[in-house]
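Sharing a chain and its predicted structure for anyone who wants a worked example. Both blocks are below, sequence first, tokens second.
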Amino acid sequence: MAVLGAVMLCGCMENNKTPTKTTAMVKLVNCKGQGSMPQLLSTKELDAVIAWEPMPEILRTKNIGKPIIYSQDLPPKGMWKNHPCCVIVASDDALNNKKLAVTEFLKLMVLSTDEINNNKTLAIDASSKWLGVNKKTEALSIPHIEYFTNPKLDIPGTLEFVKVMNSQGSLTGKLKGVNNKEIIINTLFDFKPYNQVMNEINNKISPNITTNNIPTLKVAYLPTDHHAALFVAAEYPELFKNKYNIYLKEITPKKQYELYENGKKIANVELIQVSEGGAKIMTLMAQNQVDVGFNGVPPAVFAIDKGTKAKIISALHGEGSAVVVRSDIPVNNWDEFVNWIKEQHKEGKQVKIGYPLPVSIQYVMIKKALEAENITYTE
């Protein structure tokens, strides 16, 4: 349960504790993270949640809830198949002033992702250790996550997110109403670091490394196995040192590291766990407290739209979320859940579904899924 403690927050943002008369079938509840979800399902304050891994499998193994549909299968049919989820975002300042550190750190994440895809046990073991989650739970979670790094694979899904976020009125800045693909791509992405990394890997090129002015790279991440590439790189330095001659040297577990390549120190790396979600990471980046962030696409889109000077430089993974209903609710799949919502509405009851955070991927997807089923909702 350590992961629950790591992300435990003050609960869902719901001012009214008693049912109110409404025509909406569903009330969407902002849980300000995922830590409160087990308690709120157990106490029947929520009927269901949409959550990122490993929370769905934690709820399953604790017999608190049951996943009824994974994110790639949510309606509208086919819309979320292979959908992007988390990405690596770098501030413009880091891209300009810590370019080598950013690029070579990204290289390590690319190589770590390759190792995960060759051996999922690495991700299971490392995530279990970092998150305090049972290995059996992680063994259920990891298969629902597609790990990849090529940022160009995220373009179609990101364009779709921008479209949906615009339709929901979430974008009010430079991307408000924009549907020009090139403008969106150029506003959100910088492909140069990834292209350089792949050129170095494919052609076995070593960067020109000097030992002067070693920078500190501040890297923020979330307590989720979506970010297993970071955990694996930190937990298995000898693997990367021996195989690729690039690795993280641990100074303080889970906090302070040094990045080495070809025997030379490239950067000090400070890891910052952020429990509140991707929006918080982007806020820290806007405040120049974070150089690199591991977070979802919508928080990145939202922040860049509002003026945060940053770019998406890599994908991290796709899919990896699920809708989970309370164990006592008599449904086992999405269609049954939709019918149950309608039955509850006929009886004058409003179904409550929790989501992690506003402008999270999960928030975007559950709203779109309910709209596709003609399920009305309020917030």
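Comments welcome. Residues 99-118 form the longest helix (20 residues).
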